[in-house]
Amino acid sequence: MSKNCFLLFSLFSLLLFASCAEFFQEKVPLSMNDNPGSLDDVFANEEAITKLDAPAQFYVAPYYSTSEIRLTWHAVRGAEYYMVERAVAAFGETPDSSEYEPLDRFVYRTSYIDEVLKSPALSSPEFQNEYFYRVSAFNTAKKYDESDPTVPHSAMLFRAPVNVQASGGVSVEYVDLSWQPSPGANSYDIWRSDFTNGISASLLGTVPNVPINGKIQFRNSVSTTEQGKDFYYMVTANNSFGNKTLQTRPAYGYARVYGAPFAPTNVRRFNNLGRGHSKTELKITWDPVDETEAYYAVYRYSETDSSLTRLKDRVEGREWADSQGLRPGIYYYYKVQAIVDDLGSGRALKSQFSSSDSDTESFLLSSPDEVIAEKNSNGTVTVKWKPAKGNENDRQGYTYKVYAGSAMEGDLSINFASSVPPVTGTDGYISANGPLMGNNAFFRVSTVNGSLESDQSMVVSPSPAAAEIQDASQHAFIHVNEAANSNGVYPVKITWKKPANEDPAFYNIQRSTRTGSGFTKINEARLGANGPYSDVYFYDPATGVYSYIDRNDAARVGRKYFYRVLSLNQLEQGSFPSDERTGWGALTHTQYMLEYNKTMNSALKKLTYMHKPGSTDKLGTETKNGTISGNIYYDAAISGLGARIIIRLTNYADFYIENETVNGVYFILNGNSNTSANMSSNGTMDGTVTCTGMYPGRVYYDRIEIKGGAAGGGTYGIWPDGGFSRVEVPYTVLN
After folding, report:
1. Which one is the CATH code of 162-253: 3.40.1080.10, 2.60.40.10, 2.60.120.830, 3.30.420.40?
2. Residues 6+ apart with CB under 8 A from 70
3. pTM, whole model, 2 decimals?
């Protein structure tokens, strides 16, 4: 072989390497495992996953059980695991995306059961909540971008029927039951007990979920021997999942006996009081029945519990003062039953229940149950509340007092405002303004009706002003005990100061993948303004700067995150988040080389000389423009007894961050990646490429060895900005 031919062969080998070992793609054979190939095999790589799809067929089973909510979805191609998020809202309300919090970050199946209640009880407030869910797909091992979350779906727990009522003495032949349907029920079981607590109940029957005038109805026929006997009825609902609700509270009912007295009439509030005229008791009266030997039993139910509670078995007079377990803020109703003892049969002959419930409606004097405190820009505070219990006529006689103090517990003593008239604004709130009064930042409101004052309301405190966020780190190495996640991304450090002239009690850190919305709390432990501090939460008293390290296991390469800080008062209430800051973690040295090489590889593919088939055809000079900016310059020539290839990039850029123009350019390259080799196709590389954009830094080629016309040893020098030093990455990283 002539010298020139050998040089051209060496040049051909060097040009094939062209300073980018990842440039070549493995050939796809048209025959695999002795089976004929197809065009699908050739183009299989075009279907490579970059971002996972959102899970399809996402389903949240409505009213699944009394304790659990079941979720299912279809598997996502390429997904390794799923994250389930949940938001809780009052029924009929829709939560904001920032209210979703991770319920389980690593779900390896396509179903999930959320155990909302371990020990369900009829009084559990969880039965009133609506639970919203969304699911995202992940594969961190293969470095796929996680999917967008599913569209949220919601469900509630399967709750027991409400307002179970049994008739009392309306007939000698039967007891009628009725109740409001349970959402999700397809049938109901009716149980009856002889005991007030419902023990030893027997199943009377099952009825379908067919409401009549908005209620499910059941008639329990009674025998002659059962007339006048006290029965206690309970109901459970059944659904299509094979689950049952809890049993309702016992509802008292009975059939009348022939000869029983008539029901008491004109049952009413005593002297028409009982509407906010007492803090401790409610009193009723009634007209006596004709039987001189009659005595009375008194029952009560409320707007929150329709089951009758027997307050007194035997009242000899015609009035009753009730002080048994009353709570403010609730309407109570009363029924009275006349009873005559039949000495001949030894039975108590009971009348039908009285029917004048509206005339017995009573309530204790109550403080407002919805109170808000808002701080004003002029240093004052506005305390607002909805009117206390009662109808419009009742409330016209009220005034209000506002108390302030420095403690969260107990009654407050400082008179913030007195004799506040019951005048509501356009927002439906009554309000009082006054000074913040230093540290006296807690407020309670009481209702005054004549000379009587209610207990004080729940304590409220103004939400503190927004924290002064300082920074969210960008491509910075967080030194203290911090490691990169499985995607090769280091944590982000968020720093802030307390708001001017205020001292919040706590802080929450919120993160989103988009600006303006979608923020979710990321700190699991409570961040107290006075500690305790930890390996992720710091305070520097010299500068007054707080900091939090976001160890985001799901942080992705090439993705920006948005952070803000929410100041909280001692009640952990907050309304004013800080401004946003954009942050993203630095990359490991190996991951840095891989990300940098995406732009370098894209640039090399645009060159034409180096891809020509003939060796001599590869000699020459050309310049190609970047998709976004700059150019790549190529020059290949015989140099002495070898070859010299010059590749120079000037402001070269091909990609935007997350392929969105508004996010800015991913990598901008400036510098050289050159190759020199001798007649044996051995040699070295040289040059440095400076990177700007999302991950500024430098890539060095001065330790790469060329053997046989290809990279055969050495390392790439990787030196990202942001507190790193140069680290040598093996040449095999691009293989």
Report:
1. 2.60.40.10
2. 60, 61, 64, 111, 112, 113, 114
3. 0.66
